[in-house]
């Protein structure tokens, strides 16, 4: 019985750690035109503003051309 309780407690604690990441995933897989014009090959490298904006919650950020203008996109 004690072993089952320990496993359940571990699972609950693990879920608490995952929940904050799931909520922040809303930032990923989206474009952010409000961040302003970005430069491909510059803004999407570590230290570039697209990368820095996205990296805390996503797999990074890139500068993509959408509809004739460059916009930051947070990777999935």
Automatic annotation (TrEMBL):
Main localization is secreted
- Looking at the UniProt record for this protein, which Gene Ontology cellular component terms does it annotate, in alphabetical order? extracellular region
The protein's location, in the record's own words, is: Secreted
Which Pfam families is this protein grouped with?
Defensin_like (PF10868)
Q: Which domain of life is it from?
A: Eukaryota
Question: One GO biological process from the UniProt record?
Answer: defense response to fungus
Q: Which residues form the signal peptide?
A: 1-25
Print the keywords alphabetically. Antimicrobial, Fungicide, Plant defense, Secreted, Signal
Family label: Belongs to the DEFL family.
Provide the protein name. Answer: Uncharacterized protein
């Amino acid at each position: 019985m004690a072993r089952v309780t320990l496993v359940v407690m571990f699972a609950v604690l693990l879920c608490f750690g995952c929940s904050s990441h799931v909520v922040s995933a809303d930032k990923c897989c989206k474009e952010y035109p409000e961040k302003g014009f970005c430069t491909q090959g510059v803004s999407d490298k570590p230290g570039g503003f697209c990368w820095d904006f996205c990296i805390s919650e996503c797999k990074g950020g890139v500068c993509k051309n959408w509809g004739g203008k460059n916009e930051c996109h947070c990777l999935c």
